[in-house]
Hints:
The protein contains four helices and five strands. It is an alpha+beta fold. It has a five-stranded antiparallel beta sheet with strand order 2-1-5-4-3, sandwiched between helices. Helix 1 runs antiparallel to helix 4 (about 160-170).
Amino acid sequence: MQKNQSLRTRWMRNGSLILVAILLVAIGIYALFITSYYRNNLRKTLETKAQAAAELFDAYAPDTPEIYRSTAERYARSFSSREDMELQYLDTEGVIRASNLGSGVETAPETEDIVHAIQNWEMHCWRGEEAGTGRRIMAVSVPLFYQDSELMGVMRYVSDMRPANEQILYS
């Protein structure tokens, strides 16, 4: 009788371990899905805003390049959004000329999104650690053109990843 009981105990223990392992794998897959969902949602939001800004400037391009630049700077400074989103206007050298938060003006963040937008003339997204502050961000940069042929600068939407990461953690 004691031999049967220890066999039954081992069977229950082994079955429980398999069940716990399956449960941990399922939780891991769920966490990856939620993380991907929130990050993709944030990326699509930033890309939509960047594309809308580029189209706005394409449709209503000012008469001269100088007016175009000053209009882009004014647009970036007057942008109002949640506190976790920043809009920057950068010149063709990648130097921030205007920001709705007023931070980082006259600095040149050397992130992949800016370099790609300037060199390849297309929108690009980047996620990583911001130099200087160490905060995790997602940024989307879109080039702005004067009369579809002259690169005038880059509009860059930046979002702090902390709120998204907190949302993921609480899900």
